[in-house]
Specification:
The complex is a heterodimer of chains A (239) and B (216).
Chain A: H1 2-6, H2 17-49, H3 53-65, H4 68-79, H5 87-115, H6 118-126, H7 131-164, H8 174-182, H9 186-214, H10 217-238
Chain B: H1 3-44, H2 46-61, H3 64-75, H4 82-106, H5 110-118, H6 123-154, H7 166-175, H8 178-206
Helix pairs in contact in B: 1-2, 1-4, 1-6, 1-8, 2-4, 3-4, 4-6, 5-6, 6-8, 7-8
Classes of the chains: A mainly alpha (239), B mainly alpha (216).
Chain lengths: 239, 216
């Protein structure tokens, strides 16, 4: 496997590891962007107004049970004939990636906005904030940790499913695994698997870092105090 | 939809369904058995908690197909061995349930624990007959997520060739034939709903004291 990764031949040409990695990142970024454009406003609306809670919970549960592999293949067979050229494989796969990324983003945005301290919202209203200003100046910043954790879940889901979509000819690192399987080349499969796992870990760490800088220090201080209070409770419980 | 195909293939579909059921359920049982002690340790000690939750969180980020492929080189199994799938899903289940068990034990009211203490319960006895039963609703909620997502993840193992409903997807893709794909998706959903319902029922049986809707 190490030999496979170190072989310069695997790092050049149109299907080099670098190209596959970039493809994987592009599919992931694009799907997350589209999913955010759809999922965040819905989550904010439901969280802010309290309307449609049932809809959100239902969608999230149903999508968790849906087998992603079946969904990808089904959509490719149904949608592919509508497109000429390579798009026939890319578009259906991207649709599935977006579909899978929406629920975690949407539910966490909703849950984050709902979980904001009612006193903070009341204070903002009392200070004369208009509803939109309450939403963007108070609720969204307070909900940011949960919203980001929704993005984290969505990103992992998309990286994972983009790998699977290599089966229906999508590019990306999954190619190494699927093509390796077809050619009975376990070294290539293993190289692909390690690269995908490393990519997922790095992206996950990256989002964690973004959270560290983006979340208001006022919030994190409160979180530290809250977690510091728990061990005290635990020691009284177990004493 | 081609009903003839379903009737003709019903025997082999049934075999795949049974395999799928086994591959989804066995890891949850093993995973729960491993997560209970780990979650308890995490609940008891603050320092160990961040280590355990950090490690399991890291394992959870590894995409399933990558894990299916990496395990044979770690375990020394053949790539087609169903054991790879069982181990991979057990890893995910443990990663998910350790946090749940720890949260569940944290949710037990201090008064309850202290009352048990005052009545002379020893640590282990108190855990088994007081803390775990009270934590059942929280643990069951995590178990539901684990069972339902396992049913979906198992089907991905079809890409390396393991026997289960996912093979209907790859078969459909090769033949450009929708019937097996739809049958596979429907059976996966039904399996997920049934297993989810079983966890809910089991949790209710284990917590007869929780209030429930009164039937006329």
């Amino acid at each position: 496997m190490i030999d496979y990764l170190l072989d310069p031949a695997h790092w050049t040409g149109s299907d080099s590891i670098g190209t596959l990695l970039v493809q994987h990142l592009i599919y992931t970024g694009l799907s997350l962007l589209v999913a955010a454009v759809i999922g965040v406003p819905i989550g904010l609306y439901v969280g802010h107004t309290g309307k449609g809670t049932f809809f959100i919970a239902g969608v999230a549960n149903a999508l968790r049970a849906l087998p992603t592999l079946g969904l990808v293949i089904l959509l490719v067979i149904v949608i592919a004939p509508a497109f000429a050229s390579e798009l026939a494989f890319v578009i259906p796969s991207l649709i599935v990636l977006v579909l899978l990324a929406i629920p975690p983003i949407m539910t966490n945005t909703y849950a984050g906005v709902r979980a904001v301290d009612a006193a903070a919202v009341d204070a903002a209203v009392g200070m004369g904030y208009r509803p939109l200003k309450v939403l963007f100046a108070v609720q969204v910043p307070c909900a940011l940790p949960l919203i980001l954790s929704g993005f984290r879940g969505a990103t992992l889901q998309v990286i994972s499913t983009a790998t699977i979509a290599a089966y229906v000819s999508l590019g990306g690192l999954g190619r190494l695994i699927i093509d390796g399987r077809a050619q009975n080349d376990y070294d290539q499969m293993l190289a692909g698997a390690v690269l995908v796992a490393a990519l997922a870990l790095l992206v996950d760490l990256g989002i964690g870092l973004i959270g560290r800088f983006a979340v208001s220090p006022g919030l994190t201080r409160r979180r530290i105090r809250a977690t510091a209070a728990q061990p005290v409770l635990a020691t009284t419980a177990t004493a | 939809m081609n009903l003839d195909w379903i009737v003709r293939e019903s025997d082999s579909i049934l075999v795949l369904l049974v395999w799928h059921l086994g591959l989804s359920v066995v890891p949850v049982v093993i995973g729960l058995a491993m997560a209970l002690p780990l979650g308890w340790v995490a609940h008891r000690s603050g320092a160990f908690k961040s280590v355990v939750l950090g490690t399991t969180g890291l394992l959870y980020t590894v995409p399933s197909l990558a894990l299916f492929v990496m395990l044979p080189s770690i375990l020394g199994t053949r790539i087609l061995d169903p054991l790879n799938v069982v181990v991979a899903l057990t890893v995910y289940t443990v990663a998910l349930l350790v946090r749940t068990v720890s949260d569940g034990l944290d949710s037990v009211p201090v008064e309850t624990v202290q009352a048990a203490q005052a009545m002379g319960y020893r640590t282990l006895q108190r855990l088994v007959s007081v803390e775990l039963p009270v934590a059942v609703p929280v643990i069951a909620a995590g178990l539901r997520v684990a069972v339902v997502s396992n049913v979906s993840v198992v089907s991905i193992a079809a890409l390396i060739g393991t026997q289960q409903l996912g093979l209907l997807f790859t078969q459909g893709a090769q033949l450009r034939f929708l019937t097996p794909i739809i049958v596979g998706i429907v059976l996966c959903l039904v399996l997920a709903v049934v297993l989810d319902g079983l966890v809910v029922l089991l949790a209710r049986r284990l917590t007869p004291w929780t209030p429930r809707a009164v039937h006329a």
